[in-house]
């Protein structure tokens, strides 16, 4: 256990219309959301980069709007994680240059789909994708249970890549892992615990509100993590109707009280 462990808490994205009137004041415009978000949280996951490749101009604009000390995790593009195409890595890295230069890029998140099973071919692909992006800190999130093995953790440790521990429903085929850190930094993403909605369409998968008891249990487990991780990133992806922001604030209060 590390009593000095720092928790850096935020949400997976910030620009949601249904956060207006819940997390954001009524009448908030999209252009004002990030400034309001940054008044409460010191980090965020940028998700639009999964859907389309970023440009240095757009990344620089986001960077300029952020306060000193703010941190970004940028989600890898779907070409890399979902389509088996490694050719976009150089363009992706070049676009992140403004955040790398400002010191605000915490890293790149590679979230692989549940269809990405652990095989010889996918292990080779993962090693190549990690090598392509090795110029920046990396975190990998698995969704399929086949990656639950000591060899997976050993491979990430060898490459100094963070394991993302996903908080997901109790479905046997999903990747489950107790609090674990493969580098000096832990990373947890909280999605939902509602198995009945996990395979629903659209945002319904993430329509879940964590209870204070669930958050307290998670905080205790991560606080008591018996590994030399100096800090832990915790991102809430249950973004329906501002639940992520509410849970993130509650989680931060809990870990600060321990």
Biggest sheet layout: 8 strands, parallel, barrel
User: Which CATH architecture would you pick?
Assistant: Alpha-Beta Barrel
Mean pLDDT: 96
CATH class: Alpha Beta
Question: What is the H/E order?
Answer: EHEHHEHHHEHEHEEHEH
Written account of the structure:
The protein has 258 residues and is α/β, with parallel strands linked by helices. It has one domain (6-257): TIM Barrel, CATH 3.20.20.410. It contains 10 helices and 8 strands. Strands 1-2-3-4-5-6-7-8 form an 8-stranded parallel β-barrel. Helix 9 links the parallel strand 7 and strand 8 (231-236). Helix 9 (212-223) packs across helix 10. The two termini are 12 Å apart. The mean pLDDT is 96.
Question: In terms of topology, how is this protein built?
Answer:
Blueprint: E1 6-12, H1 30-38, E2 43-46, H2 48-51, H3 56-65, E3 71-75, H4 78-81, H5 89-95, H6 97-102, E4 105-111, H7 120-132, E5 138-141, H8 150-159, E6 162-167, E7 185-190, H9 212-223, E8 231-236, H10 243-257
Parallel strand pairs: 1-2, 1-8, 2-3, 3-4, 4-5, 5-6, 6-7, 7-8
């Amino acid at each position: 256990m590390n009593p000095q462990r720092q928790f850096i808490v935020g949400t997976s994205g910030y620009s949601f219309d249904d956060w207006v009137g819940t997390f954001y004041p009524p009448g908030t415009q999209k252009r004002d959301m990030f400034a309001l978000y940054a008044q409460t949280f010191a980090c965020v996951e940028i998700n639009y980069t999964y859907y389309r490749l970023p440009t240095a101009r757009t990344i620089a604009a986001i960077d300029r709007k952020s306060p000193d000390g703010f941190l970004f995790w940028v989600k890898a593009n779907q070409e890399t994680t979902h389509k088996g195409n490694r050719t976009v890595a150089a363009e992706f890295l070049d676009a992140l240059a403004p955040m790398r230069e400002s010191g605000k890029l915490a890293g790149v998140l590679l979230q692989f789909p549940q269809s990405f099973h652990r095989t010889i071919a996918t292990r080779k692909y993962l090693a190549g994708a990690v090598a392509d992006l090795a110029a920046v800190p990396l975190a990998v999130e698995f969704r399929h249970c086949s990656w639950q093995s000591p060899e997976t953790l050993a491979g990430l440790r060898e490459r100094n890549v963070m394991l993302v521990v996903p908080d997901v429903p109790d479905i046997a085929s999903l990747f489950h892992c107790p609090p674990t850190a493969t580098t000096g930094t832990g990373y947890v993403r909280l999605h939902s615990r509602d198995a009945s909605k996990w395979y629903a369409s659209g945002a319904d998968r993430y329509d879940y509100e964590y209870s204070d008891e669930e958050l307290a249990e998670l905080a205790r487990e991560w606080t008591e993590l018996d590994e030399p991780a100096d800090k832990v990133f915790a991102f809430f992806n249950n973004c329906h109707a501002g639940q992520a922001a509410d849970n993130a604030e509650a989680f931060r209060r809990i870990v600060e009280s321990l």
